[in-house]
């Protein structure tokens, strides 16, 4: 049997490896004899928006759960707003996480990136 392809999978904004793995179930099943997909977590927890009203604050708090491996909302960067506008920061930590995955594990044949363009905060 030929060696399977190894694909490094990077989840999208507010996802994590568990969520991305679940969302790719049909693809993983269809390619199970051809490829192994490896999912790694982004380095940054997503900071949830703040609420302007008591009602909105209570609604947001009701949606929050204690983050764990299955529910953590992660990102590959940080979004900051300041006088100069909206900026994405944290590239070095992201590169460090990816570099570690590439160095510590065996060779990869490709990457699969969940697009960040689905995030309305970045539009």
UniProtKB/TrEMBL annotation:
<dbReference type="GO" id="GO:0016787">
    <property type="term" value="F:hydrolase activity"/>
</dbReference>
<dbReference type="InterPro" id="IPR005645">
    <property type="entry name" value="FSH-like_dom"/>
</dbReference>
<dbReference type="InterPro" id="IPR050593">
    <property type="entry name" value="LovG"/>
</dbReference>
<dbReference type="GO" id="GO:0005634">
    <property type="term" value="C:nucleus"/>
</dbReference>
<dbReference type="GO" id="GO:0005737">
    <property type="term" value="C:cytoplasm"/>
</dbReference>
<dbReference type="InterPro" id="IPR029058">
    <property type="entry name" value="AB_hydrolase_fold"/>
</dbReference>
<keyword id="KW-0378">Hydrolase</keyword>
<dbReference type="Pfam" id="PF03959">
    <property type="entry name" value="FSH1"/>
</dbReference>
<protein>
    <recommendedName>
        <fullName>Serine hydrolase domain-containing protein</fullName>
    </recommendedName>
</protein>
<feature type="domain" description="Serine hydrolase">
    <location>
        <begin position="1"/>
        <end position="110"/>
    </location>
</feature>
């Amino acid at each position: 049997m030929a060696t399977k392809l190894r694909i490094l999978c990077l989840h999208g904004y507010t996802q994590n490896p568990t969520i991305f793995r679940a969302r790719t179930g049909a693809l993983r099943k269809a390619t199970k004899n051809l490829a192994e997909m490896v999912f790694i977590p982004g380095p940054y927890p997503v900071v949830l928006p703040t609420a302007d009203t008591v009602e909105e604050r209570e609604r947001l708090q009701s949606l929050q759960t204690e983050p764990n491996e299955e529910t953590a909302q992660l990102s590959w960067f940080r979004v900051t707003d300041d006088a100069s506008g909206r900026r994405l920061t944290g590239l070095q930590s992201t590169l460090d996480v990816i570099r570690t995955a590439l160095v510590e594990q065996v060779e990869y044949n490709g990457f699969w990136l969940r697009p960040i363009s689905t995030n309305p905060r970045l539009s």
